[in-house]
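# step 3/5: fold
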Amino acid sequence: MIALSVNLNKIALIRNSRDTTNPSVTEHARMCIAAGADGITVHPRPDQRHIRARDCVDLAAMLTVEFNIEGNPMAGPRRSERAGVGDYPGFMELVKALRPAQCTLVPDGDDQLTSDHGFDLKKDGEKVAPLVSELKSLGIRTSLFMDPEPEQIRLAAQVGADRIELYTESYARAFRTGTNVDSVLHQFVSAAETAAQEGLGLNAGHDLDLDNLPRFATVPGLLEVSIGHALTVDAIRMGLANAVAAYQKALGK
């Protein structure tokens, strides 16, 4: 069965639009778990635009399901300029302190609105390999955010990753526009087959929604999807518990 990990970044973004603790990230995590979510994902960035380092600490203390922390392992510490918002300790320091079940390394930067590409391990493999090794030595399952490119996926195995998370925006765009859906999906199937050949577990995420998820769920070997933006939007329309249930149904559960 494919696990559903709910990304809570957008819940934190709504909270941060006011000087308030409402909505509560931890309370929404509890609601997602009660509704059947298999895991919780967060992606803290150094500017703390949505999920903050303190949220990660709070979630680690209360979660009863798998905790997945995403982020750029090269992101160092940063002082916060907002009153009441703690400093960002650096991504690796945060993860090493909390030791989540899974850490997904993502090559993003502050100037990106959202994650928009996978690792180029031809260029960054030597930097990434020791970070993967360090996380794995702490018992943290380590995944790399990757484009559906077989050559790059083979390199992900060489640097020691346990899993990859396929960046699915190209599939979501093809599905939305009705353009070359079969050929684009085939790229992800080929990527999945390469991952299996290399002994890598397979996750996926980005712009997956209730419309495009059922077909993507047919990709062989898919273990987990991480969904935040679309699920949060659907929760506004149908309620959070109903939205989680609808996504589990889209995964075939």
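# step 4/5: annotate
The chain has a mean pLDDT of 95.
# step 5/5: archive (pending)
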